[in-house]
Fold this protein.
Amino acid sequence: MAEPTTEIVECDVLVVGGGMAGCGAAFEATYWGKDLRVVMVDKAATDRSGATGEGLSAINCYMGMKWGWNKPEDYVEYVRTDMMGIAREDLTYDVARHVDGTVHMWEEWGLPIWYDDDGKYVREGRWQVMIHGESIKPIIAEPVKKALGPENLYQRVFISHLLTDADDPNRVAGAIGFGVRENKIYVFKAKAVISAAGGTTALFRPRNTGEGLGRTWYSIFDTGSVYGIAIAAGAEMTQMEHRFVPARFKDSYGPVGAWSQLFRADLTNAAGDNYFINRLPELKKYDPYGSAFPTPTPLRNHLLLTEIQAGRGPIMLRTPEAIENLAAGDPVKKREVIVEAWEDFLDMTISQALLWASQNIAPEERPSEVVLAEPYLMGSHSGESGLWVSGPEDVAPDEYKWGYSKMTTIKGLFAAGDGVGASPHKFSSGSFTEGRLAGKAAVAYAMDQSSAPRVSDGQVADLKREIWAPLETFDTHKGASTNEDVNPNYLMPRQGLFRLQKLMDEYAAGVSAAFTTNEPTLLRGLELMGMLREDLGKLAARNRHELLRCWELSHRALVGEAHIRHLLYRKETRWPGFYYRSDYPDMDEANWKVFVNSRYDPESGKWDIFTKPCLDIFKPTSA
Ligand code: SFD
Ligand code: AMP
C-alpha cells in the first residue's frame, strides 16, 4: 500500500460521529457558533450511519409535556428505578426537560409520527410514541448537513485517536484518523471535540455465528470508538461494568417493546403459563426496585432467564392472542393490527420481517420465540456505560460539576449519546437532545479559549505511523505463508475479533456463561486480555477496509478491558438478568449504591478504579 497523504483540517468545534448525538451536536453548534468553524466527521455515510440508519418504529423518549402527560421529574424516577437505583439524575433531567422540543422539530423536518383520533401522538407506552420511521436517519441528516455545509462534513473518515495539547496532556487538541476510501490521513485540529461515536456492538460472541454473523441487535457501525478514543486519552469513565442485554425475537433480534406495550402481548413458557406473573414475588428480594412498575429491564430478563434455566423454555411471545384481543372480533381491525405488526419490523429490523416470511410465521397464527441477546456496552438505551461528564449548572450538585455541561474530565472534550455514562434511556430523541446540549456548551468553551491548543508534529508523526502499521506489517510478511490469512508474523482483524469475542463471552459473563462470572474467572480473562492486547500490535491489513477493522478491534478491546476491570471491582449483583457475580450473588445497597469510575493513565498504562457517590437529587415519589 502506498504511503498516505495527509490533510490538515483546522476548526473550532469537531464532532466525531454523525449519528443521533453527532447530528444534534452539529446542528446546535452551527446555530450558536455562527462565527466558528464546526466540522463533523463520520466513519460512514451520514444519511444512513449509526443505530437509526436501519430505521426505527418508535421514539422511545418523549415526555408529552404539551399534553400534560409527564414531567421531567417523572422520567428521572422511572430511569433511576430501571437502573436499580444507579443513575445520574442531573443528566437524565437535563435530557428530559429538553427532549420534546427535539421531537417537535423532527416532525417539522418531515418525520411522520402516528396520530390518534383526538389529534395526539399515538403512545406505545408511557414514554414512547409511534412513528413511520424507516427513513428517520436521512430525514434528520438532511437539515444537519445543510446547517454544516458540505465543506464541513467528512464522511467515510474513521477517527482512531484523539490529539492532546503539546503543553497540557489533559487538554484536547483535535483528532486523527484515515479515509476508508482514500489513501489519506486526516488531522483535525480543534479547540473543542464532541465524542459521539455510538456504543459497542460485537464485543461479545454473538448468538448468530457462521452464516448469521453480522446480524446483531445494535448498530454494526458502533464499534466502541466513543469509549476507546477517550480511554486511551485518559478520560474518566463511569459504569463500564454495566451492559444492556436486550430480550429480543430469536435469530433476527426484533425488538420487543411494541409487542409488550402497544400490542400488549404476554410472554409464556413452553406450557403456555405466564411465568412472568407467577415469578413476580421472587423479585421482592430486589426491593424497592423489585416491586416497581414497570418491572426494571434487568429484572424482566432475570425472570425470563431463570424460567429457561428451570427447564421450562422456550419462552414464547404470544402474538396471536395479542392480535385477537386488540381486534375484538372485528376483521378490519385485525387486518390493521397485522399490518402494524409487520410495519414495526419493516421500519426498524427488516431482517426480522424476512425471518418471519422465510419461516412461514404469520404472527396472527404462531407465537415467536424470545431470548436474551449477547451484551452491548452503550449509554443511550437500557445501558449506562460511558464517559463521566460535568452536569448542567442549575441542577448538578458540586460533586457532578467541574465546568461546561457535558464536558468530560479532559478539557475541551465533550460527549453525548451512547458516549455519556450514567445517563441511560435517551434513545434516538434523547441522544440528539444531549448532542444539542453538548454542542451549545462546546461552542461556549471554544469561544472562551484565548488561544488554540498546540498540536505537536511529533505526536502526529507517531500516530500516523501507528495508524498505518497494519498495512506495512502485511506488506512486509505476506510471503511467509501460502494462505494470507495464516501467517506466523501477524494476526488478521477477523481472527482477532473472534478471539476477543470468545474471551468476553466465556470470562466476562456472555451468553455461553449464562451471563455469570466471578473473581477468578475475571482475573483469568484479564490475563488473556493482556495477551490479546499485546498481540494487537501485530495486526495486519490487506487494504483500508481491513485497516478499519483493525482499529475497530483495538477500540473494542480497550472497552472489553475496561468492562472486565469494572466487573471485578463492583462486588455485588445489582443487575441480575444483565450479569451475575456468582461470588457476590446479592444486591448490596449499603456498600454499592455508588458509581464505579475508572481512569486509564496513557503514560504508565495503569488503571485507577474508584467510586463516586450516587446522589438523590429529585425525591422519589413512588418507586
Ligand atoms: O426498539 C464514527 N434505538 C431506538 N431508539 C428509539 O428512540 N426508538 C427505538 O425504537 C429504538 N430501538 C432501536 C434503536 C437502535 C437500533 C439499532 C435498533 C432499534 C435496531 C436506539 C437509538 O437508535 C440510539 O439510542 C441512538 O441512535 C444513539 O445515538 P448515538 O449518536 O450515540 O449513536 P449512533 O446513532 O449509533 O451514531 C454513532 C455514529 O458514530 C459514527 N462512528 N465516526 C467516526 N469515527 C469513528 N471511529 C466512529 N465510530 C462510529 C457512526 O458512523 C455513527 O454515525 S429499540 O430497540 O428500542
Ligand atoms: P425495546 O423494543 O425492548 O427496545 O423497548 C422499547 C421501549 O419499551 C424501551 O423504552 C423499553 O424500556 C420499553 N419496554 C420494553 N419492554 C417493556 C416492558 N415489558 N415493560 C415496560 N417497558 C418496556
User: Anything to note?
Assistant: The two ends are 60 Å apart (CA to CA). The mean pLDDT is 97. Residues 195 and 415 are 5 Å apart (CA to CA). DSSP finds 17 helices and 21 strands in the chain.
